[in-house]
Design goal:
heterodimer, A: 355 residues, mainly alpha, 75% helix, B: 339 residues, alpha/beta, 6-stranded mixed β-sheet, 10 helices
């Protein structure tokens, strides 16, 4: 039997997506520029424009502010949005759990533990901040190991326990346990170590230096490359591991790839910005709503771009015009994300297999 | 001489779970079975006897503890992952209920072992997926979400996914479990049709014995101590089917091809009549715990016969004759009699 393949049907389906891509890409670029325009120091719009278009300026201090502070901050926001939302999507698919995300499952807490051990441990020899680029690499690798460790623990549990709520509660337990260990570490550390750690915990999008970006961006880039290479794997895992295996998927290798990528993504961001909550849970759901699909070929880039948009947007509204201080980014993302999480819970009374 | 087109052979297989401490936990051993091309095979047995485990072993999701599983005379272990996925596809009892997952996307996932690393669908993959949906009568559902269709429709979509996977063998674990009666019949009939039209070997487990008897070419019967295979009719004639529920109150009615409860009849009653009215009156009397004796007028008896296009039941006893217009009226009277 040969079918006349209905091209028109598929074309409509993708042309809608093409329009969405154009709109979302434009939005991302616009918000990126808007993020550079906003900040605690009031720089006239035309001056900002001159600087980012490479024209000469009469105010060298504006040049410094934009290149040393605003551009790194905007880049951090974009990459943090990419990383957190994509790691959330991967967790939701692998654990078949609509409420999974790096923050809820305690993966961010695991990264914090890694950093705490390094800062308060190594600081007995030298302050990590004095180590420069090497110090940054040490911190980020510690965060990867910490988040990877928690992921591995959750995986071990999820093999035995299938219930979504139980796994979430265990994730919260793991998170609390790591926080407790961090507190105990703080108790035993001396003043200079403590100071170094407290400075790190206060990290925000704006606190990432150019030298840290040189570590952050490659780490996230690698995580995203692995994620995009895993699109077929993620699609197969959507229907559960039994089906995936029966279709020829190497489950062990696939899990390793996805967890490796998730550790890189969630760990890198937590290492330099501290834990940022709710982006990982909420953004994949917004992407599903907008693109009306569960296919990762569309959902993965969609989640990525929406993550960038939402974190840039959150960063812009965290800068209250005229005020010198900014609202912590974590508060804004919580206020953006929590309504979406509540909506998911209410909409899906039965929370099984909603991926 | 019958041409041997066997595709699947189980030789001295033991199934169960491998435990590290106490050694292996064997659920069932000494399994010798076979399947031919284009055959619909029903796996029958009590709950917990190891039907799912056997199917998982054949589908390559679990390893046998002892013995060999052979596909086209090649050991299951010697297949590469992808190669095996092009030979055997599987539908488990898990319900795929993912929000926003389109029917087409789910079915085209079946192309997994045929596509490249990125899973990009080529024209051929799309055609095969649509073809599969057409075969199960679900082509108009391509844009629907899988969590918004009925259980019967979803089961058809899951079958379409195995057809898209394009395997010679399809294994299904209780495909009729969540379905209502018409859907049970339709799904098994669809499997029968596919096994013939596509020359596929389809193996499924079920508790719906009467459907299996009607549609399957072969039954694998898991009894307490052995596993027997044969055409359903052969198993009926050899009294083998009767052994499934040996310990229970069920017995197999060889004439009707169905199970019925063994009753302890207390009173005897005679019955005169013929055709359908006779049969159903007899059923009703047995339900009321009477032992029916055809044509016996020496004891209390009933005559069922049409009078002017309407059925009449005449109950005759030493107290006289009573006429009833329905079985309901008759049984109400008999109940008051026994009291």
């Amino acid at each position: 039997m040969i079918f006349k393949f209905n091209h028109q049907e598929r074309l409509d389906y993708t042309s809608r997506n093409i329009i969405l891509w154009i709109i979302l890409s434009l939005l991302l670029v616009l918000l990126f520029i808007a993020d550079i325009f906003t900040g605690s120091v009031n720089i006239p719009v035309d001056e900002v424009w001159r600087i980012i278009t490479g024209q000469s300026t009469d105010h060298p201090e504006y040049l410094t502010i934009i290149y040393r502070f605003r551009l790194p901050k905007a880049l951090t926001a974009v990459f943090a949005g990419f990383a957190l939302s994509v790691s959330g999507l991967q967790m939701q698919t692998v654990f078949k759990n609509p409420l999974a995300g790096p923050y809820v499952l305690g993966i961010s807490a695991g990264a914090s533990l890694g950093v705490a051990v390094v800062i308060m441990g190594i600081s007995s020899f030298a302050l990590v901040s004095q180590l420069g680029v090497i110090g940054n690499w040490i911190i980020v690798i510690a965060a990867w190991i910490g988040s990877g460790l928690i992921l591995f623990l959750i995986l071990m549990v999820s093999v035995r326990v299938k219930d979504i709520m139980t796994i979430l509660i265990l994730g919260i337990m793991f998170g609390s346990a790591t926080t407790a260990i961090v507190n105990i570490l703080q108790y035993f550390s001396n003043e200079s170590m403590l100071k170094a750690f407290v400075v790190w915990t206060m990290g925000s999008l704006g606190g990432v230096s150019i030298s840290q970006l040189k570590v952050l961006i490659p780490g996230i880039f690698l995580g995203l490359v692995i994620s995009f290479l895993s699109v077929k794997i993620l699609n197969a895992m959507l229907v559960g591991e039994n089906y995936a295996k029966s279709m020829g998927l190497n489950v062990g290798l696939s899990r390793f790839l996805i967890f490796f990528s998730t550790s890189l993504l969630a760990g890198s961001i937590t290492a330099f910005c501290g834990p940022i909550g709710f982006i990982g849970i909420a953004v994949p759901h917004i992407a599903r709503m907008i693109f009306k699909t569960a296919n990762h070929q569309i959902l993965l880039p969609g989640t990525l771009i929406l993550g960038g948009i939402i974190l840039l947007f959150s960063d812009i509204i965290s800068q209250i015009p005229g005020k010198e201080n900014t609202v912590p980014i974590n508060s804004i993302t919580a206020l953006v994300g929590i309504p979406i999480v509540i909506w998911i819970i209410i909409r899906n009374k039965k929370l099984s297999n909603l991926g | 001489m019958v041409k041997d087109d066997s595709i699947l052979t189980l030789h001295q297989v033991a199934i169960g779970y491998s435990k590290t401490k106490k050694g292996n936990h064997i659920l069932f051993d000494n399994i010798n079975l076979s399947g031919r091309k284009g055959e619909l095979i029903a796996l029958i047995g009590k709950n917990g006897i190891g039907k799912s485990t056997l199917l998982r072993n054949i589908a390559g999701l679990q390893n046998v503890l002892e013995g060999e599983v052979l596909f086209l005379d090649k050991k299951i272990q010697s297949f590469k992952r992808n190669e095996f996925a092009r030979l055997v596809s599987f539908v488990s009892t898990e319900i795929v209920n993912v929000s926003n997952l389109k029917v087409f996307d789910l079915v085209s996932l079946g192309r997994f072992p045929h596509t490249s690393w990125f899973g990009k669908l080529k024209e051929k993959d799309i055609r095969q997926s649509l073809n599969a949906l057409e075969m199960v009568g679900m082509k108009s559902f391509i844009h629907k979400n899988v969590n918004e269709i009925s259980d019967g429709e979803r089961q058809r979509v899951m079958i379409a996914r195995t057809l898209a996977q394009d395997t010679k063998i399809i294994v299904l674990d209780e495909p009729t479990a969540f379905l209502d009666l018409p859907n049970k019949y339709e799904i098994v009939h669809l499997l029968n049709h596919l096994s013939k039209s596509e020359n596929k070997t389809i193996l499924f487990s079920t508790h719906d014995l009467n459907i299996a008897i009607q549609e399957a070419d072969k039954i694998w019967l898991m009894l307490d101590d052995e596993i027997i295979q044969g055409a359903p009719e052969d198993l009926i004639l050899s009294e083998t089917l009767n052994r499934i529920f040996k310990a229970s109150n069920l017995s197999f009615d060889k004439l009707k091809g169905d199970f019925r409860i063994k009753r302890k009849h207390s009173k005897k009653i005679g019955l005169i009549g013929d055709g359908l009215p006779y049969n159903w009156t007899r059923k009703a009397l047995e339900r009321l715990n009477y032992a029916v004796d055809k044509g016996n007028t020496a004891i209390d008896y009933i005559v069922v016969k049409p009078v002017k296009n309407e059925l009449n039941w005449n109950f005759k006893s030493e107290n006289g004759t009573f006429v009833f217009k329905s079985i309901d009226e008759l049984s109400l009277y008999l109940k008051t009699q026994t009291k």
